[in-house]
Amino acid sequence: MYATSGKFSEFFLYDNRYSFFMRETEKIFYIRESLSDNLVPSRMPKKPFSSRKKLTGQELRDLDVEISFLEGVIRRDSDYVEALQILGDAYTRRGEFSEGLKVDEQLARLRPDDALVHYNLACSYSLTEHIQESGASLERALELGYRDFKWIVADPDLRNLRAHTSYRKIRAKLRELKLQTR
Questions:
Q1: Contact predicate 55/63, CB 8 Å
Q2: Half-sphere exposure of 106 toward its Cβ, with a 13 Å CA cutoff?
Q3: Distance, CA of 49 to CA of 86 (rounded, Å)
Q4: pLDDT tens profile 6-15
Q5: Alpha-carbon distance 173 to 43, whole Å?
Q6: Distances in whole angstroms, Cα of residue 6 to Cα of each of 11, 50, 51, 54, 159
């Protein structure tokens, strides 16, 4: 057995843990690509299955396996952002919106300056009918640079927010931002 200094051994353990998580994440992406018939443009947010199509029994079982696996990964490293993003998406596809909201809130704490994280948080708040929080998160996402205006007005996850009167203020801000980006 080799003797190592504390810092080197800590780095080595961290490096091995990181490598393990990266390999597992790659497996998840591979599984998802091979199972999914949906082609999702890369600029869309993490919730590509928002149309809420009814999942088959096999798709539900596969999704349950994915959720179970990711929950295990998160138990080992609760700050593993990529795994949290995939888990939040899986909960949403499964219809477990309150669980997805918890994950998105954790991601917002870990990545407070990430526009996409705040956009997804707005979607989760809207799905769980927390309209004021949804509006605030969407405004924060816009402040941080989220600019997929077409998806904002079409995303089914934001349907509850768009139906609320508070969305008028956000719609005005969207128009203003569109003019600035032209």
A1: yes
A2: 19
A3: 13
A4: 444 444 444 4
A5: 21
A6: 9, 48, 51, 52, 53
d(CA 182, CA 70): 41
**DSSP letters for 110-161:** H-TT-HHHHHHHHHHHHHTT-HHHHHHHHHHHHHTT---HHHHHH-GGGHHH
Quick check: 169 and 175 in contact, CB under 8 A? Answer: no
d(CA 97, CA 165): 23
% of the chain surpassing 90 pLDDT? 66
Residue in the structure block whose two tokens are 């600029």: 43
Nearest-angstrom CA–CA distance, 121 and 144: 13
Mean pLDDT calculated for residue range 124-140: 97
Judging by beta carbons within 10 Å of its beta carbon (0-12, 13-18, 19+), is residue 87 exposed, middle or buried? buried
CA distance linking residue 103 with residue 91, whole number of Å: 9
- Of the candidates 142, 131, 113, 119, the one whose C-alpha atom is nearest the C-alpha of residue 46 is 119
